[in-house]
Structure formats: C-alpha cells, structure tokens
Amino acid sequence: GLNGARLYGVLPADGGDRAWDYDVEGGYQWGSDLGRRVSAGFATTEIGQTWKKATWSPRLAGLVYYGSGGDRDSETF
C-alpha cells in the first residue's frame, strides 16, 4: 500500500511586496514485493520567498529531501 499527503501555499508579506511560499509532502509505502517485506517513507520540504516588486521578481528557496528503505532491486523509496 501507499499513503501520502501534500500541503502547499503562498503567504503575502509586506503589503504584497514579498511572498513566502511553502510545499510540504510525505508518503509511506508498505507491504511486500516478490515475497520481500517493504516498509519505506519519504518527506520533502521547500520554503521560499519572492520579491515581487524587484526586477524579474527574484526568489530564494531552501529544499530538503528525505527517503528511507529499499534498495535498487525493490525500487522502494
């Protein structure tokens, strides 16, 4: 089985001159594959800020990925 969720959005700041954005996602995988037990998960988080009034609206962001479980043969996370 596989379950997952995602939450994302934009939060205005400084009267609309800037904006914070976020994207958080995660999932969990379990069961069996060719007789082998599967138990693995993943999570990603991204947080950024856009300067909307600046030339070209630059954006600075940070991103983190995490994945567990599996090997190349079972193709889990």
Primary descriptors:
about 80 residues, mainly beta, 4-stranded antiparallel β-sheet, elongated
Distance between the termini: 13 Å
Number of helices: 0
- What is the gyration radius calculated from CA atoms? 18 Å
Sequence stretches where pLDDT stays below 50 over 5 or more residues: none
The oligomerization state is single chain
Q: What is the residue-mean pLDDT, rounded to a whole number?
A: 88
Which descriptor suits the 3D outline? elongated
Order of helices and strands: EEEE
Query: What would you call the structural class?
Result: mainly beta
Helical content stands at under 10%
Q: How are the secondary structure elements laid out?
A:
Layout: E1 2-13, E2 18-33, E3 36-51, E4 59-67
Describe the structure.
The chain has a four-stranded antiparallel sheet, with no helix packed on it. Helix content is 0%, strand content 69%. The protein has 77 residues and is mainly β. The radius of gyration is 18 Å and the shape is elongated.
Short note summarizing the structure:
By secondary structure, the protein is mostly beta strands. It contains no helices and four strands. It is 0% helix and 69% strand.
